[in-house]
Amino acid sequence: MKNLLLASALLFLVSCNEKASKTNSNYPAGTEPEVNIVEQGKVLFEGRGNCTACHKEDQKVIGPSIREMAQIYKTEKADMQAFLRGETPAIIDPEKYEIMKVNLEITKAMTDEERAALEAYIYSFAP
Ligand code: HEC
């Protein structure tokens, strides 16, 4: 009986943990995302997304720097995941949107979790 209680307590803890790691899909300004989701975003940003080709940490290359994107989206309280789904217009550099638009095909094909991870990674550069 005691063991059974212990086992169900453990099970409860484990399922709570699982939930906790999945609740980061909409990262609001001011709260810290978990390190693992940021790491996952970094991997996508540098790997499959190929975002680093145009977005560097601090300097503008072809696209705005990651820090600038984090700063502006945070200040404007804009929805980056919606942008990555192709649903909202560019707010940083609308004249160059055509260059970015092509890459939205990649992010549109991603899952909600993957877009949330990209956002969490970018937001980890916010001041
Ligand atoms: C070929 C170059 C290029 C690549 C690759 C690229 N981007 Fe961009 N990106 C741009 C340019 C140029 C802009 C500025 C135009 C704009 O604001 O939409 C931009 C803007 C953005 C913005 C700001 C949108 C806004 O509201 O103005 C975000 C967020 C962004 N990119 C995310 C990404 C992510 C995530 C990836 C990888 C999946 C990526 N970009 C890959 C060129 C690129």
Automatic annotation (TrEMBL):
Listed GO MF terms: electron transfer activity; heme binding; metal ion binding
Highest rank taxon of the organism: Bacteria
Organism of derivation: Flavobacterium aurantiibacter
Name of the protein this chain belongs to: Cytochrome c domain-containing protein
Domain named Cytochrome c: residues: 36-126
Record-linked Pfam families: Cytochrom_C
Keywords carried by this UniProt record: Heme, Iron, Metal-binding, Signal
Family matches, as InterPro entries: Cyt_c-like_dom, Cyt_c-like_dom_sf
SUPFAM superfamilies for this protein: Cytochrome c (SSF46626)
Signal peptide: 1-20
